[in-house]
Amino acid sequence: MIRILAIETSCDETAFALVTAQGSLADPVFKIEKSVISSQAALHAEWGGVVPNIAKREHIKNLPLIFEKSFRPLIAKSQGVDLLAVTVGPGLEPCLWTGVNFAEQIRKDLEKMNPEMKVAGVNHLEGHLYSFLASKKTGISKIFPAVGLIVSGGHTILLIMESLAKWQKIGETRDDAAGETFDKVARLLKLPYPGGPLIENLARDGNPKAIAFPRPMLNHKNYDFSFSGLKTAVLYYLQKNPARSADDVAASFQAAVIETLAGKTFRAAEEFQTRSIILAGGVAANRELRQTLNREARRKKMNFFAPPAQLNTDNAAMIAVAAYINFLKKESLPIQPQANLTV
Ligand code: KG4
Ligand code: ZN
Question: How far is the CA of 112 from the centre of ligand 2 (A)?
Answer without folding.
Answer: 32
